[in-house]
Protein 1
Amino acid sequence: MAAAKSYPVYRGVEGTVKQTPTEIPALGPKDVLVKITHTGVCGTDLAYIPYGVALGHEGVGIVEEVGGMVTQFKVGDRAGGGYHRNSCGNCSYCLSGQDIWCYDRTIFGEKDYSNGTFGEYFVGTETYLHKIPEGLASEHAAPLQCAGATVYNALVDTVKPFERVGIVGIGGLGHLAIQIARKLGAEVVVFSTSRDKEQEARNFGASEFYLLSETEKITKPVKTLVVTGNRYPDWDKFLVKGVVARAGTVVPLAAPEAKMELPAWKMFFEGYNVRSSLVASRGKHNEMLEFCASHGIVPVIEKFELNETGIAEAVGKLTSNKMRYRGVLVAS
Ligand SMILES: [Zn+2]
Ligand SMILES: [Zn+2]
């Protein structure tokens, strides 16, 4: 890029999301400049509005320029990513495919504050961007970059094909978790606060549906329980009452600013496990994209324009819990 070019990114300014200018940096040898066409809107973006960072971490777009040593992408390719942006490459986590846990990682909200996928461009490091499989539309690939990667990572190493999996909540994460768990061969049981969502949950692949107020109606426990949404459920309902089977695993994907108060004696004598899933490391992320493309797993989306007005509409809908199921901002 000859002269530094200014382009818009969107960040929180006094509580609302505003367009602010930033400059495309001189690309490093492994950098890739992606012109954003679509970006998903995640609850984590809302959490970072008060901090003024460039928002967006579920981006998909077209490669417009590459650094001198980039070999994985060429101009015109589709690329996705935005949450996990770098890690050291040398530590035990990086060397074992768990690079998301690298102590030198760069992730959305922790560093790289003027680079986000709510913008005209996103600057990515080539090995932290992901090729979008053919047959997967960019508008559908966008929400997979965080929501899809998070639920796939939660399920793929936890669930065996013949097992029963419980999904708490049917939102951006939950509606993908139902589809992915079903395609992994599991029997899917959904727990929700709203009866309205029963038919859709079944269409996504659930074979049983319970309101959170009637969990005692379940007749056979689930081996894995994935908790989505922004609140923890009453753990006693699931753990003390045996809705989760012995030696079962709880995967909380909700990250409220609250303590996770688990019934200690039940945890011990029933052999419960808790594991987390902060998106996926890169290998799993690529696997997830191929898995979704080959099984026809697509998010149900609502589209908004990628500008201040569109972002305000999307943020409003997400905040009031009315998004069905993932918002996607589309560049004009
Ligand atoms: Zn996210
Ligand atoms: Zn590392």
Protein 2
Amino acid sequence: MSHKTVPMHRYSIFYYLGGMTLFFFLVQVCTGVLLMLYYRPSADEAFESIEFLVTAVPFGWLVRSIHAWSANLMVFFAFLHLVSVYFLKAYRAPRELTWITGALVFFLVLAFGFSGYLLPWNQLSFSATKVGTDIAGVVPGFGGWILRFLRGGDRVSGATLSRFYGWHVAILPAITTVLLVAHLLLVQVKGMSVPRGVDEKPPMKFFPHFALRDLFGWIVALGVLAAAAAIMPWELGDKADAFAPAYANIRPEWYYVFMFQTLKLVPGGEVLGIEYEAIPILLFGVGALVLLLVPFLDRGRGRGWTIAGALALAFVLIMTCWGYGWLTP
Ligand code: HEM
């Protein structure tokens, strides 16, 4: 750390975003472990165990609320970090692996969100998981297999809950930790990138100068997180009922809304035995693959990748706003 320096130029502010994401990840680990002490992963007890936690356990409501808020802030900051390193072209050699480990962690973060959403076993999460896993079932060829793999059966049931719990508290944390350690080591070994053509000032020593600034950001983040969690405690809703009519206005978490909205626009029907819906699903898969491999696809000439990135970002933002009904008067 004593050798590490951080380049100083007009975009240096973006070097704080990775550290900020790391802060929320650490909060997730600490609060997640505390939640595990009370949570029971079964269809009969999951909802009640959280109800007990938030009503009877001292500060249980706060720990749960912080976990939920921090999860959303982590996705948000991971997304900002990804977008900023993309447009600063920090993925270019020699940082290809830094990018790839980061992109893989980003997909895992989304999987954390999807698996965690079901755990309170309330109406909203139950319906959203049903719809979300139904979408996976549309994939040509393997759809049925993916659907049963995710649900642990044909329907969303207690078996799905056990499975999502296993992913959420064991499998995903284990893989994420390994990839995150690799990511942070790579940042250390490869050093920070400097965007082409910017005027550089003398670099800043990472320790103690940049680290103290990071810490200042973390303290502000802790304040915002604590305030949000205390003033707007995360709701629990009503217990899931498999026989209740489908929940009105069902919508996934905000970071999946752009895909959900795109799929809503696709008419029913099929061509050559493939459902129309499968086409955008496959395109999203290709998009994720292109994102992962962008360091090897961008040959460094022209502005093509910047324009493609801007169009993709505009698509995600517009579809999200549309999904929330913000585009209609
Ligand atoms: C939990 C998720 C993540 C954590 C905790 C994390 C953490 C960090 C940290 C602490 C840094 C050094 C400071 C900085 O540049 O911000 C960094 C750099 C970097 N990260 Fe991440 N990261 C995460 C996800 C991602 C994602 C999703 C991507 C892209 C797909 C990514 C790609 C990069 C790259 C390319 C750098 C080098 C930046 C440069 O040299 O300018 N990271 N990351």
